[in-house]
Automatic annotation (TrEMBL):
Its main location: cytoplasm. Residues 204-239 form the UVR domain. This is UvrABC system protein C. The UvrABC repair system catalyzes the recognition and processing of DNA lesions. UvrC both incises the 5' and 3' sides of the lesion. The N-terminal half is responsible for the 3' incision and the C-terminal half is responsible for the 5' incision. Interacts with UvrB in an incision complex. Keywords: Cytoplasm, DNA damage, DNA excision, DNA repair, Excision nuclease, SOS response. It comes from Candidatus Pullichristensenella excrementigallinarum. One of its GO terms (molecular function) is excinuclease ABC activity. GO terms for cellular component: cytoplasm; excinuclease repair complex. InterPro entries: GIY-YIG_endonuc, GIY-YIG_endonuc_sf, GIY-YIG_UvrC_Cho, RuvA_2-like, UVR_dom, UVR_dom_sf, UvrABC_protein_C, UvrC. Belongs to the UvrC family.
Amino acid sequence: MRSEEFDLKLKNLPDSPGCYLMKSQGQVIYVGKAKNLKNRVRQYFQSSRGHTPKVLAMVERVDDFDIVLVDGELEALALELNLIKRYKPKYNILLKDDKHFPYIRIDPREDFPRVELVRRQTNDGAKYFGPYQGATAVREVLDVVRMVFPIRTCKRAIRPDKPERPCVHHQVGQCLAPCAGLVSREEYHALLDRVMEFLRGHEQPVLRELRERMMQASRELNYERAAVYRDRIQAVEAVMQKQKAISTSPNDQDAIAVVPEGPDAVVEMLFVRSGRLIGSENYILEGAGADAPGEALSQFMLQYYDSENIPPHEILLSADPPERDVLEQLLSELHGKRTYILAPRRGDKRNLTRMAEKNARDLAEKRRKKLSRSRERTLGALEELQAALGLPALPRRIEGYDISNTQGALSVGSMVVMVDGISAKKEYRHFRIKTVEGANDFASMHEVLTRRLSHGLRERESGEKGRFSTFPDLILIDGGRGQLNAAQDAMHGLGLDIPMFGLAKRIEEIVLPDREDSLLLDRRSNALQLLQRLRDEAHRFAITHHRALRGRHSVSSQLDSIPGVGEKRRRAILLRFKTVEALKNASTEEIAQAVPKKVAEAVYRFLHSDD
């Protein structure tokens, strides 16, 4: 069952073209494109009628989605292609081929270049125009080029010293016949310049000429010819849209925009590589909402382009940063390559930053709405919880506890924290059970609460602001009456009295220390959902740590049998390789980074003795 947040996200989709990324447990499982994101994405979840089994299976797994807004269908298609290449989503298998968008290629270095369709761009010095949405669209453009500009498209080898007989294209006025020596190189290249201007998007002169020819044909009552010109005009208008999401420029670019959002700022990045928009990313700059946009961008770049993130050839910004030259020099020296920082005011580069701004504004608005809804829902949940449990104050800080073990071995306890309904992960803690033998969840819970609260009391007595000095307003115990009683005994033994309850999974009943009967909240209540999230998080945190311990214990057990591997070397190997599988997949050289080479070879031989 999807969350209320998912439904609200679905409800607030924009009526804009773009790409959507369907996610399952944080992984992109499908990428699609749409003229209207609202209509397309909602279709998946409103009705299953007409869905293929593959789509039904995909929809069943989706628990989240992201969108990227673009300016047109061609941009959405190109972005979809690159996102699929990047993420390789499970449900885009039909698009996983070696298909490429076609381009028009012209090599002006030749004496009489031809205009040709190619499937790939290569760094061969030629001029490339596109990409186009399919070979049919390119051929339509080539037809228009041939009709308006009598440029050659054949593969004949042109030899001025051996003129040939002109072909039929010359006879119908679609080629100047350089093969026959009927045009000079200078005249041909002057015509070629007009062709390239047209292909760069300056189509209005051509459209004017086509319209004049269409009107002339109509005046002559040659309606069939006029219809041909009409179709040509429509073809030109369809395929000669200016492209911002895809560029034939060889330069790699990052387009970055910043939009203030309350006390923070939203940063949107568009990544253009080898002329293709391969994806986007967004970030929140905490506390940067009041800063000038240029200053916020400067701070973001300094943090983002560290040793892990290498800047591209050009960084395009929505606002000019202060001391741009210094920043440029710093990034260039830091990464050993020249980087240019630009704040374009017009042209394709400005269009890229506008697209980034559009996405940033959309994200900022969604974040505002989400935060507002979250605050209202969380406050309502806390107030509901206070009333249901009869608490003296609003439970701003709630701690959740759980125990995990395997048949009593490697028992661990977990402590997770919510502050104002939001997970405070920096406050999470693990406890290795030290005093309990075997599988005894009650005694283990008693130990965990005793240790946590004792730590807190000691820190408070010493005046230290430590990891445990802040006590909760409410404690949640994952379990029923037995676990709750054990936790209560631990707390009372230390002279403390903090509101505490248990949450049993079977029917989600709340177990209270002063009531024999359980408390049942409405399954749809925000209060219960908040408690379920906290309980499930405590369980996840405990079991994840337990599995890690179990993996390390398994590695340690295997290492015990290897000659030359003592406690110190075993610890070094455990530190580097957490599981047996990781250790088995490692090479001798990789193991030798943790221990001497001879020991590494012995470990490798032992682990692979059965291979």
